[in-house]
Amino acid sequence: MLDKNFLWGGAVAANQYEGAWNVDGKGISVADVMTKGSVNQPRQITDDVLHHQEYPNHLGIDFYHHYQEEIKLMAEMGFKCFRLSIAWSRIFPHGDEDKPNEAGLAFYDRVFAECWKYQMEPVVTLSHFEMPFYLAKHYGGWRNRKMIDFFLKFATTCFQRYQSKVKYWMTFNEINNLIDTDDPFNAWTGAGVLYQEDENVEQTMYQISHYQFVASALAVQAAKKISADNQVGCMLHFGPIYPASSQPLDQMASVKAMDRRFFFSDVQVRGAYPDYVKQLWKRHHLQLDITADDLATLHRGCVDYIGFSYYKSSVAEFDSKTDFKEKPNPHVSKSDWGWAIDPVGLRYILNVAYERYQKPLFIVENGLGAYDKLENNQVNDDYRIQYLQAHVVQMLKAIELDGVQVLGYTPWAAIDIVSASTGEMAKRYGLIYVNLPEVQQGKAGIYRKKSFAWYQKVIATNGECL
Ligand code: BG6
């Protein structure tokens, strides 16, 4: 039997659904210069907002103007919580201002009030693939130590303003995506950085990560000072990378692959750098700007819980040059975008992460991106129900059989929004369907999918009826 306070809900991110990209004083964000892509065509990052380009995040689903109708539907589903993020560039349009933008702050006052109207607890990510474009362009993004102060100011402003409305916070969404330096998407959305051809990318990546760790640890301390009730978590992408075979070298490859994924939570949960990474820095002769004060800050700013996304698993095969090569998992099926579907992987990662940290875990993203069809105002997304049901079953096993402490479950996504990786609206995750042509005409254009009713029942029975 699940705890009665278990936080069932749904998740979204500001840049993917708010729209109103230049309304009420909002500045341009790094997501506002990303064009539309597809499963075969990566999104382009342009040097500014260019008139001949299409930028899907500019409109999103226009939550900014329809938040009341949308939150009402989430409440109808029975959401106990709503995971959303605050657009940094709405609060500090350039990022280096002395004073925040009052209109931006007031928008979230309205959103949080709407949530509480239905007793829905907001769970807030401070930086979810969105930071002021100005900071990326004029300061070099998180390459620059000054970012720590800018972020802390943004975080503190939010903690102060929303102290009676928000208790659950997360600092950086999927901070560990930074480790995958091959895809420019990761450093751009996560840190406002585009790597140069002639730079030591590995060194820059560890430096960026360090500044974010320090900023996150300072934010944890600031949040606690403002209210002892505040709970601040990290947020990681936790896809298991299993050994490709029972060969000892593949087993070792999996350990090394998972160390790279866990490196970020190791620092944010334990407050210190793990030995394996210190050895790696030595071997690779990396020179990092890490001060004694920084290390003390990390130690004092450990997170309270671990938020994570779970979508897919993969496998690691031994490779003599790089320790491991990550490959697709041949034992599981795939979504239309090639993402592995592996419900047992959720129970697996819950166990592994809980054994590693003994801290509460919060599944803040899990879901299926699919092509949905609206016919006669209905969407029969049985495939999504099947996906979510299979994952909830595994989550319940982790809680009830394995004793893992899980705070809540917020599937991705509460409502259809723009896909982060492809910029498409066609890659839908929501329990609520959004008809974009209607949104373009100024309407909300929202419809309950079949999964809406299914999830409503799950929440009403606290997971008893799946
Ligand atoms: C997570 C992100 O990586 O995956 C979300 O935190 C994102 O922002 C989600 O939308 C699904 O990815 P995508 O690319 O299919 O939208």
Automatic annotation (TrEMBL):
Which family does this protein fall into?
Belongs to the glycosyl hydrolase 1 family.
Is Zinc one of the keywords?
no
Looking up Pfam families in the UniProt record yields: Glyco_hydro_1 (PF00232)
List the coiled-coil residues: none
Task: Give the annotated active site.
Answer: E365 (nucleophile)
Q: What class of enzyme is it?
A: hydrolase
Q: Which chain regions cross the lipid bilayer?
A: none
Single GO molecular function: 6-phospho-beta-glucosidase activity
**UniProt-recorded name of the protein:** 6-phospho-beta-glucosidase
EC code(s) of this entry: 3.2.1.86
InterPro entries listed in its UniProt record: GH, GH_1_N_CS, Glyco_hydro_1, Glyco_hydro_1_AS
Keywords assigned by UniProt? Glycosidase, Hydrolase
